[in-house]
C-alpha cells in the first residue's frame, strides 16, 4: 500500500481554459439569449421569429417601437408622423440634452414614442407605440405632444386609435411640463370619444407612473400583455405607506385583470387577431334602418 502511494503516477492538474480573442470573435455577440424568467438559453434568431416571446416559458420580452410596428401593422402601410419633433431643455437640467442624444443614437428614434397611421388586416388605424429603450419610455413634453397629435389625426380621419404603452412615468428632467401631458392627452381622448372615436390601449411591460394614470388607462378597451408590470407608485412605497405586505403578483397584468382594471390579458401571438375582431365590430356601416 505504501509503495503504491509513493510510486504511483501523480494526477494531472485540471486547468480552466480561457478562450482566446480570436475564438471570442468567431462567436458573434448576441447570437444567444438567456430568458430572464426561466433562465433558458436559446438562439436569438429563434426568439425574434417568435415575436420575442420565450419559446420555453412564454415570457414576453420588451419590443422596440420598430419591432412592434413590423409585427403588428400590415407590411408597407405604416406612415410615421412628427418624426423630426425633438425635446428641448426648458428647465436647463444638467446633462439632459446629452442623454437625449445618446438615446437617439442607441434607438434610432428622436423620442420615446413613435406615431403614425397604417392598416391592420386592411383596416385603417392611427397608432402610437412607446419604446422603453428611450429614456425608459418616460413621458416628456414631446411624447405628450406626439400622442395628442396622433389622437387628433385619428379624429380627423375618423379611424380607431391604438396605443402601446411602455413607460417609467413622467420625465423628471422636464418637471411640470411632463405632468401637463397627462391632462393634455386625456382631454384629447375625451374629445375623440365624444366624436364617436374608438380607442384601444395595450399596456406592455412596464407601464407605470403618470402614463398609467392617464392615457394608458383611458381606452374603450384596455388590454395588457402577460406578466406586464402596471401601476402608479412603486411597490415598496405602497407597502411603507399602508404598512402591509402586498401579494406576490401585485401590479401584474394578471392581478389587474382579476380586480377589474383590465378587459383582458392577451398573448402577443393573439394580439393582432384580437384587435382585428374588435375593429371589425366597430366598422362604420352606415345608419341603421328601423
UniProtKB/TrEMBL annotation:
<feature type="binding site">
    <location>
        <position position="57"/>
    </location>
    <ligand>
        <name>Zn(2+)</name>
    </ligand>
</feature>
<dbReference type="InterPro" id="IPR041010">
    <property type="entry name" value="Znf-ACC"/>
</dbReference>
<comment type="subunit">
    <text>Acetyl-CoA carboxylase is a heterohexamer composed of biotin carboxyl carrier protein (AccB), biotin carboxylase (AccC) and two subunits each of ACCase subunit alpha (AccA) and ACCase subunit beta (AccD).</text>
</comment>
<dbReference type="InterPro" id="IPR034733">
    <property type="entry name" value="AcCoA_carboxyl_beta"/>
</dbReference>
<dbReference type="GO" id="GO:0016743">
    <property type="term" value="F:carboxyl- or carbamoyltransferase activity"/>
</dbReference>
<comment type="function">
    <text>Component of the acetyl coenzyme A carboxylase (ACC) complex. Biotin carboxylase (BC) catalyzes the carboxylation of biotin on its carrier protein (BCCP) and then the CO(2) group is transferred by the transcarboxylase to acetyl-CoA to form malonyl-CoA.</text>
</comment>
<keyword id="KW-0276">Fatty acid metabolism</keyword>
<comment type="pathway">
    <text>Lipid metabolism; malonyl-CoA biosynthesis; malonyl-CoA from acetyl-CoA: step 1/1.</text>
</comment>
<comment type="similarity">
    <text>Belongs to the AccD/PCCB family.</text>
</comment>
<dbReference type="GO" id="GO:0008270">
    <property type="term" value="F:zinc ion binding"/>
</dbReference>
<dbReference type="InterPro" id="IPR029045">
    <property type="entry name" value="ClpP/crotonase-like_dom_sf"/>
</dbReference>
<keyword id="KW-0863">Zinc-finger</keyword>
<keyword id="KW-0547">Nucleotide-binding</keyword>
<keyword id="KW-0963">Cytoplasm</keyword>
<dbReference type="Pfam" id="PF17848">
    <property type="entry name" value="Zn_ribbon_ACC"/>
</dbReference>
<dbReference type="GO" id="GO:0006633">
    <property type="term" value="P:fatty acid biosynthetic process"/>
</dbReference>
<feature type="domain" description="CoA carboxyltransferase N-terminal">
    <location>
        <begin position="31"/>
        <end position="290"/>
    </location>
</feature>
<keyword id="KW-0443">Lipid metabolism</keyword>
<keyword id="KW-0444">Lipid biosynthesis</keyword>
<feature type="binding site">
    <location>
        <position position="54"/>
    </location>
    <ligand>
        <name>Zn(2+)</name>
    </ligand>
</feature>
<keyword id="KW-0862">Zinc</keyword>
<feature type="binding site">
    <location>
        <position position="38"/>
    </location>
    <ligand>
        <name>Zn(2+)</name>
    </ligand>
</feature>
<feature type="zinc finger region" description="C4-type">
    <location>
        <begin position="35"/>
        <end position="57"/>
    </location>
</feature>
<keyword id="KW-0479">Metal-binding</keyword>
<keyword id="KW-0275">Fatty acid biosynthesis</keyword>
<dbReference type="GO" id="GO:0003989">
    <property type="term" value="F:acetyl-CoA carboxylase activity"/>
</dbReference>
<protein>
    <recommendedName>
        <fullName>Acetyl-coenzyme A carboxylase carboxyl transferase subunit beta</fullName>
        <ecNumber>2.1.3.15</ecNumber>
    </recommendedName>
</protein>
<keyword id="KW-0067">ATP-binding</keyword>
<dbReference type="GO" id="GO:0009317">
    <property type="term" value="C:acetyl-CoA carboxylase complex"/>
</dbReference>
<dbReference type="GO" id="GO:2001295">
    <property type="term" value="P:malonyl-CoA biosynthetic process"/>
</dbReference>
<dbReference type="InterPro" id="IPR011762">
    <property type="entry name" value="COA_CT_N"/>
</dbReference>
<dbReference type="GO" id="GO:0005524">
    <property type="term" value="F:ATP binding"/>
</dbReference>
<dbReference type="InterPro" id="IPR000438">
    <property type="entry name" value="Acetyl_CoA_COase_Trfase_b_su"/>
</dbReference>
<keyword id="KW-0808">Transferase</keyword>
<feature type="binding site">
    <location>
        <position position="35"/>
    </location>
    <ligand>
        <name>Zn(2+)</name>
    </ligand>
</feature>
<dbReference type="Pfam" id="PF01039">
    <property type="entry name" value="Carboxyl_trans"/>
</dbReference>
